């Protein structure tokens, strides 16, 4: 099939970008979206032009590296699907497709469709872990974990850190991402000792990085390729409230 | 030692002729009963005084299960760590894609598992081509890994009583595999990543994401640093340290199509090899039988589906060559259920390599199905009739969904098409018992080394090995090296760094200036075809010789006709790929050479000349019970073969059979 692409091109963070039109010819419906871009890039290279830079790695939907705004939808039209797992059979011959990078103040564009998501790493650095140094762990079965807790922790831990939630949110909020880590660790007994310190520190860094607040729109969850539920945001807010109240009580003593 | 500054492989002048002597390698395995060796060794190793650890800098290249866990653990001990990864975050390393699980000899099922049994199974599964002492240590440490990961908050599957759940995996007779749904690799990696981020936050690890190691710096025979390229700015930079650790994964992408991530590459290992590290058993590659077939020339990677599908699916192809009817139009009598026919007792559940080779045979015979005839049917029709669609959905629903997402075909209605794909490489840089390569101060961990899997890796063992190396082996053994040596005085001001940097810059300049007619990918794809055809599932003398003729030709054409647009001082993905493919073009030749020299079949290495009357892999223990470790002598000069003899004191050599 033949498609018309409007691809965001931007030389680097310092220069302004713009859409550039490309004709994609003889695209097979069996190609993935990224394979379609591979084909375009091969043609561009042979024509002596700069290929389109985009992030990608595992191409099986788990590493979280890829992520494109496709016709204004994070990861494109298919639910629960990363860009690398989206296939061209979901488009029609003659379609026009707009391809953009994630847009958020906290995710500056590096080049073309590549953005800098290191703010996510800094949120994890602030407390997205259990402080247990190698060698100090007790016997694995010493502490039983209810199956329901383990399953719910796993639901939240499935986050791949792709940033689609931020890109989809009109406020560019990172609360689904941050809440997912807080809920994952908070649901497990291992995460209890640092539970309230964690939420305070992670939220503080999240705000400092320039992500917006949550206004309960739900775009994050519907764009999420792992279908992380908005419950994690409620969990995070509840923990934050508890932590703040506890801190306030301590302060008044 | 002279620094090799040659940049173009063709102009490489090689090394001292004295190095050409073939030697017997000493793995430095401690003496004594196998169950005491690691303990004894740990006591005998020197320790670095806690107050002195901060005086040492360790360079960690790679941040997957091995590199991430090692960087975090070393920083916890007090060392300064500089950690490098090509991805935009350490959380994206390809360990994340491992699905099945991680083995540990916990014996929680009370089903007779033990450290010794895990050791035994792993040595046997490796087809008697691994080092017994390493495997025993791996089995011992496996139990500590689970403890550590649980404490980190890895959400392993649980039973209703709150205890950890296990499953049997890869044909093991005991249930020793721990798992987190189908995302065990992801969860273990995130555990290591979070431990690493904690150390980055504390300032003990300096992280360099989007940074690629392009060469190793050796000073006076010791690894003292690396030269890297910042993939965003293009800046080439030197980093000095007291030791360098490579945790850079496997080299399966030499085949172009594999289940590896697109960025996986051999460059760090290969550059170290060119600087003197021996490369062991490069021909040992593992093929996974149940991957989604190639749909066309545009195919960029292959996706694996769990082997559990073979429990209920029946594998077949049409009896007649070139039969293009749709599968529902082919009557029962015109179908060849070739595995059930050839292996009546194991049927569709024969081991990975046997299933893979047979799929290739029927496709070579012109009976393959789907685009290009490279596929076989995996049919659930009978299972759905017998069990009902609901039971099949409960068992395999997520896999069926994934298949449909990629192929657009509904496997409840039409048979799946599958084909084997490369997915793990057992070979890698040679290391001794301490995980040190033949260059002092250069350590290699995880899939990047060759050590524990022999000629074939068992399911759920890759995660175990990566974390064993990173959490519990390297932190001890590297301390012994550092304590013996004392803090180094070498800084990046040493002339060796300037020389290596100049060589790296010159190579980049070369790649950018050729401005030929072919893209990097087109060369990579062609190399992949050669490797797959002649050094893939089945290998023979004539084919390997043909590959050994074609690869140097292709390499020569690459250096004359590749087209790399853009410049070096920016984010340039074509340039990144070009450097990696240039190294694959050298590695591929070594793999074929290794496969040619090893005239036996073992594990993932199947030489057609060496098979039992039933068509099974036939080892030649008399002549090949050794590790083949190759020394680089320059492009277009044959490498030197060094041998590490393998002695089996505990697990006795046997031949396997699946009839």
Describe the structure.
The complex is a heterodimer of chains A (253) and B (659). The N and C termini of chain A lie far apart (71 Å). In chain A, the strands form two sheets. In chain A, strands 2-1-5-3-4 form a five-stranded mixed β-sheet. Helices cover 36% and strands 11% of the residues of chain A. Chain A is built from eight helices and seven strands, in the order ββαβββββααααααα. In chain A, α5 (175-186) runs antiparallel to α6 (195-208), α5 (175-186) crosses α8 (231-252) and α6 packs across α8. In chain A, β1 and β2 form a beta hairpin. Chain A is of the alpha+beta class. The radius of gyration of chain A is 21 Å and the shape is elongated. Chain A has two domains: 3-111, Beta-grasp domain (Ubiquitin-like (UB roll), Roll), CATH 3.10.20.30; 117-133 and 142-252, Orthogonal Bundle (Fumarate Reductase Iron-sulfur Protein, Chain B, domain 2), CATH 1.10.1060.10. Chain B has 659 residues and is α+β, with helices and mostly antiparallel strands. Chain B has helices spanning 37-44, 65-77, 115-125, 132-152, 184-202, 267-274, 338-342, 352-364, 381-387, 389-407, 462-485, 495-514, 520-535, 541-561, 573-597, 621-624; strands at residues 57-61, 80-84, 102-103, 177-178, 205-208, 211-219, 222-230, 236-240, 243-246, 279-280, 285-291, 314-318, 335-336, 376-379, 416-425, 428-429, 442-444, 626-631, 640-645. The radius of gyration of chain B is 24 Å and the shape is globular. In chain B, strands 5-2-1-9-17 form a five-stranded parallel β-sheet. Chain B contains 16 helices and 19 strands. In chain B, β7 and β8 (236-240) form a beta hairpin.
